[in-house]
Amino acid sequence: MSDTILHGYWRSSASYRVRIALNVKQIDFAQVTHDLPAGDQRAPAYLAIAPHGLVPTLEHGGATYLESPAIIEWIDATWPEPPLLPAAAGDAAMVRAMAALIACDVHPLNNLRVLNRLRSQFDASNAQVKDWITHWIGEGLTALEQLIARHGGRFAFGDAITLADCYLVPQIYNAERYGVDLANFPRAHAAAEAARALPAVAAAHPEKQPDFQ
Fold first, then answer.
1. Which segments of the chain belong to CATH 3.40.30.10?
2. Most Cβ neighbours (<10 Å): which of 80, 105, 146, 155?
3. What Å distances lie between residue 32 and 13, 35, 57, CA to CA?
4. Nearest-CA neighbor of 55 among 15, 87, 106?
């Protein structure tokens, strides 16, 4: 088995981000799946590795790394080529802001445990849950569209793939999955399409993972 082990799930957005980063860096890694709908992430053996009971978790060289933003930044620092952050501090801050807009403002609200809470505690119907999901995706993409208009090129920021694209591609996948009209977000959609055309990013697609169901 590879020295780098990614604990994840094929449809997990956060796992998808990390797979993109690992592939862009051409890092060989093994995958261990934890079926989120089945609750595998709460198994004692996994909680011993990741006390928060979430995916992804990355193991490398005897160390364990949690939370996709920290994991991806660690990957970028450990394998600096090709860089996922621009050299200029201001540009790097903007790329981090684009990523955080998704990681902090959209994804947590649509996390499986939040959706399950809506169903179990507030009797939300499937239609209401879908409306919740698409609302927050739309809010995030509306803001991101403006940032890409200011800073984008071929990709979300400029003409090289960055941290922002690692987050954007899975979010566009989720938008497509839930029927969000991407015609309202042409720049974000185009940037994601450019990234998805790269073999490294294409290989990270959920349906190409060994645990795809």
1. 4-82
2. 155
3. 16, 10, 10
4. 15
Residues 59-112 have pLDDT tens digits of: 999 999 999 999 999 999 999 999 999 999 999 999 999 999 999 999 999 999
The SS3 call for residue 112 is helix
What are the pLDDT digits (tens) for 141-155?
999 999 999 999 999
Residue 1: pLDDT band by 50, 70, 90 thresholds? low
Nearest to 13 by CA among 127, 133, 124, 120: 133
CATH class of 89-200: mainly alpha
* Fold assignment, 4-82: Glutaredoxin (3.40.30)
Q: 159 and 119 in contact (C-beta within 8 Å)? A: no
Q: Which residues make beta-bridge pairs with 65? A: 58
Name the average pLDDT for the chain. 97
**128-136: Cβ within 8 A, 24+ apart:** 130/178, 130/179, 133/174, 133/178, 134/175, 134/178, 134/179, 134/180, 136/105, 136/106, 136/109, 136/110
Here the tokens at position 122 are 């507030």
